[in-house]
Design goal:
The chain has a domain of about 55 residues. The longest helix has 17 residues. It has a 6-stranded mixed sheet. By secondary structure, the chain is of the alpha/beta class. Belongs to the actin-binding proteins ADF family. It comes from Vigna unguiculata. GO terms for molecular function: actin binding. Keywords: Actin-binding.
Length: about 130
């Protein structure tokens, strides 16, 4: 599975310049490559991000989660989300599962990985508990 250069470029922008809050990636099966499907504006939050993940299709996503430590210090963690809902096609789940590690290696700077098959597995509380 190839990774479109735009994926790495947009990820670097998120990581270094904070120009995006999140990125949703899609595997284009015809072209056999991962492409950028949606970019989230820096002001967009978790709600907008969660709405971008289709209920019955797999996706990869990167989310820049900002939070306050117990000492009131602002921090952020870059999450990689492998979204694979139970209702998606078996073939799609297999393609995403088999390509995940290779794709993740292309994105240098991922701090935390989440696997999710339904919205409750990537609830905001899950991000908070994993970030600390």
């Amino acid at each position: 599975m190839a990774v479109h250069d735009d994926c790495k470029l947009r990820f670097m922008e998120l990581k270094a310049k904070r120009t995006h809050r999140f990125i949703v990636f899609k595997i284009e099966e015809q072209q056999k490559q991962v492409i950028v499907e949606k970019l989230g504006e820096p002001k967009e939050g978790y709600e907008e991000f969660a709405k971008c993940l289709p209920a019955d299709e797999c996706r990869y996503a990167v989310y820049d989660f900002e939070f306050m430590t117990e000492g009131n210090v602002p921090k952020s963690r870059i999450f990689f989300i492998a979204w694979s809902p139970d209702t998606s096609r078996v073939r799609s789940k297999m393609i995403y599962a088999s390509s995940k590690d290779k794709f993740k290696r292309e994105l240098d700077g991922i701090q935390i990985e989440l696997q999710a098959t339904d919205p409750s597995e990537m609830d905001l509380d899950v991000f908070k508990s994993r970030a600390n």
